[in-house]
Give the backbone structure.
Amino acid sequence: MAKKILIADDEPNIVISLEFLLKREGYEVVVAHNGAEALVRVRAERPDLAILDVMMPQRNGFEVCQDLRLDPEFKDLRIMMLTAKGRDTEVSKGLALGADVYMTKPFSTRELVAKVKALIDRA
Amino acid sequence: MSSPAKLIVAVAVASSFLLAVLAALWLVIGAGLEAPEQALLASLLERRLGALLMIVFAACVFLFLILRAAHEFLLLPLARAAEEAAALLERPTVRLSPQGSSELQELIGAVNRVAVQREAREAAIEAQIRAANAAAEADRNRFAVLMSELAQGVIVCNLDGRVLLYNRRARALFAASPGHGMAALGLGRSIYGIFDRHLIAYALEHIASRRRSHSHFVTATESGRLLRVLVAPIPEAGAAADGGAGLSGYMTMIEDMTETFDSESTRDRLLQDLTESSRGPVANLRAAAETLYDYADMDAGDRRRFLAVVRDEAEGLAGRVEAAARTYAAVLKARWPLEDMLGADLLTAACRRIADRCALQVSLDEVDAGVWIKVDGFSMLQAMSYLAARLHDEYRIRDLKLRLSRDGAMAHIDLIWSGVFMSTETVMHWELDPMNAAGEATPLTVRDVVERNAGEVWFQRDHASYRAFFRFLLPAVSAQEAGLPGAAGATVDSRPEFYDFDLFRDEETDLALDDRLLAQLAYTVFDTETTGLEPSAGDEIIQIGAVRIVNRRLLRHEAFDQLIDPQRSLPPQSVKIHGITAEMLAGQPPIARVLPIFRAFVADTVLVAHNAAFDMRFLELKEAATGIRFDRPVLDTFLLSAVLFPNQETHRLEAIAERLGVSVMGRHTAVGDAIVTAEVFLKMLPLLVERGIRTLGAARAASEKTYHARIRY
């Protein structure tokens, strides 16, 4: 059965690329456009990996990540965070809050796909 | 014992001795004789008694004459010489008159030579002291002038935080609000009125514990300006600069970093915004581009969607970069400092720069060598060489001339060439394009440059001479203004009022106020103008003027001058006296807003006013409404005049001023009257001391005692 990935980002122009790429790699893709929707969709769709943008309306990526990590039900969920602010302090914060991988925009699509594969195969 | 008495005693003693010798002779002769011999002797003596007595008397007179001569010739000159020598101790110019014996005269001569020697030595020492004092005073003044020209604010304090020196810049920084500012900074005032005591204590501690020479802190003023303050301790005279012990005070050096900070933080924010806000769009662009490249097999619909992402994101990014560039240009503009510059220097520099950067012949045309301009030289050079480069590149102009002339308050700088005219549209483009030519690369435009220099630029043609030119119109500086530092120095009087190092000395501040010397106290001399003479019948204060006296110096710079809206009508007869009209009072603060500021201004000083009871009565009547109490001790020049000149009929301010030789100017403005009162008070201080009135308490007691003290308002 195809692994399922949630993409949460409010920028349609990055969602286009991520959705296309991951589908071509054979994953099932679910999209959320803000933090609150991301939480709902994770609970409903139970994906294997969530890709969270930090800067999102309603709940930001940090909050979503923290909420998910507090819930033991999602202890196997992999989380990848994306951010447009390239500050070291933010990377540390994301990892501390429970993200498995942190990627800074702009990233290489090949590297992103490789990291996604590594995360999901590890599960 | 006086000399004549001594003479009488000496004569008596000598005569007695003579008689005693005779008696003894009689006894010795008489004792060895037989009775008949005795009788014979007696009869012999009896017969010669007259002659004998005459001999004895003559002997006595002779003795007297010898003794008197000895007295006059030996004793008296000695006594007179001793008196003169005693006088010499008091007055070094006195000399002993030669008299008496030759031995005494020799002694007197020697004493006179010692006196001459002493006088010469004292004169030399005095001259040295005078020279040293003059040198010290000159140094101080030079130092004060230097201080006053510094771009940073400087405040020097003693260890108690009392201000000994401040410069113009410091005044400008803290006098932003007219009342409070002046109340905050003044000679003899506490620096803690300006800076939090803890900030300074912390800085000094930091210096001591780290063995550093200075320390910094950042603080904000009441008016919201951001200040960076350097604190440096001042070692006691004679102590080694690094020897932790023995401080006599400290210096603070203050930089207003509001603008620097603003432009720096704008630049930082700009940089951060640009990088952070670009990451998202660049990520979108990159992902779309890579996907397009890596998955070339995608269908036409997908491809169009990705291409649309690429187009939109690229366009958005371009806009962002453009906006950032514009903001950066604004920051650059704000950072330019304008300076006074000799116009001819700017033109010479421009010639060199244009010749270096463009293959052009440049020469000076008519140049008015006396024109100074206020300009950011560097940006002007950029603008001129940029225009020259475009003339050369686009119109093949090979020969340029530079001209400088003055037109009233403005200066003209012209870039002249012959032959080719361009369209106004072209000129407009040149003005508004970023200056990227002649090796310049800046987002600024010629327009930015002239705006920043508060000038203008235009293109003009002269058909008759077949010449055309760009004219820069720039503000000129008057020669005196730009000229030598002497122009500014002239306003600094011989003893600038911005410093008083005598305040370094420890004062007996632990004494009760009444026990302190009048000469050592700080005073606020003030005067009020009012709507009338009846405070209890509703008359109000319409103006308060005050000046400070610290260390017997009148500080005219530290004045308080405030009009007050009386919130009632102004009687026409009062306008005749003070000349303040209702229009002048419109929009002025009411008394309730002014009194707290005035109280801060008078803090820690003794109040002085002429007929103070009148002014104090007005202030007291406001106490209930404002809660502001003026409980500092008060001295009244009216009463002090009555103490000093009890027999004079009048103690009006003009009369006292005339009596004491104070020239009266600007009377019946509150500050004008306060200055006259202060000058009168300063003249009174030594006169009071002559009468034994040295302390505040003594002055107050004497005032109370005068008859006029019974007058009450």
Observations:
- The radius of gyration of chain B is 46 Å.
